[in-house]
Design goal:
This protein is an all-alpha fold and 71 residues long. Helix content is 68%, strand content 0%. It has 4 helices and no strands. The chain has helices spanning 2-5, 9-19, 24-43, 48-60. Helix 3 (24-43) runs antiparallel to helix 4 (48-60).
């Protein structure tokens, strides 16, 4: 893995340790939040600070919590 990622083996061990702190659902929810924020920043007139604040909230909340934001 370290060779493929081109990082020292120590980092791979550390990354794997960090990865065990997150579920697949949490990671998927994070990527969905990133995609939504990216689309909002590129296509809406919403204040970028608000978009980034909502993104941050989405990334730190529990994955089962739903955040419904009006357009």
């Amino acid at each position: 893995i370290a060779t493929e990622l081109r990082v020292p083996p120590f980092y791979v061990k550390q990354y794997l340790g960090f990865a065990s702190n997150f579920t697949v659902e949490h990671i998927e929810a994070g990527f969905k939040a990133l995609l939504e924020a990216d689309a909002d920043l590129k296509t809406s007139s919403r204040d970028p600070h608000i978009v980034l604040d909502l993104l941050l909230y989405s990334l730190v909340r529990a994955p089962s919590e739903a955040l419904s934001v009006p357009d």
